[in-house]
Amino acid sequence: LSVKEVEKELREGKITFDEAVDKYSDDESKNNNGLLLNPNTMSTLHAIDEMSPTLKFVVENLEEGSFSSPAVTQISDETKAYRILKLNKRIEEHKANLVDDFAMIFN
């Protein structure tokens, strides 16, 4: 199955993003439900200015809950792979505080 066919299944609602990760992904993020780990913090939170240019370009244009068209990205071992990215939540830049950032501050 090509990455374009996976994208088509997603857009037509034949498969959920989580199902696509489980069924088609061979990336190590598959073991984390497809969530990409931030290599600097080992968290699933990513600061847009710390992302690779390719990821940043794709993610900047996504709305919460939406997913991208297939994009070629460089992964941690320097190889390139196709990825369909989904933006679960966007948190606007802000000064850290206990209300919004409790879990991050105390973990």
Describe the 3D structure:
- The structure is a single chain.
- 31% of the residues lie in helices and 7% in strands.
- With 107 residues, the protein is mostly helical.
- The chain has a two-stranded antiparallel sheet.
- The N and C termini lie far apart (40 Å).
Which band does the percent of strand residues land in? 5-15%
Helix-strand sequence: HHHEEH
Q: Please tell me what the overall shape is.
A: globular
Task: Tell me about the largest β-sheet.
Answer: 2 strands, antiparallel
User: What count of helical segments does DSSP give?
Assistant: 4
The whole-number mean of residue pLDDT values reads: 81
* Poorly predicted runs: none
Main sheet strand line-up: 1-2
Radius of gyration: 15 Å
Distance between the termini: 40 Å
Overall helicity: 25-40%
Features:
107 residues; mainly alpha; two-stranded antiparallel ribbon
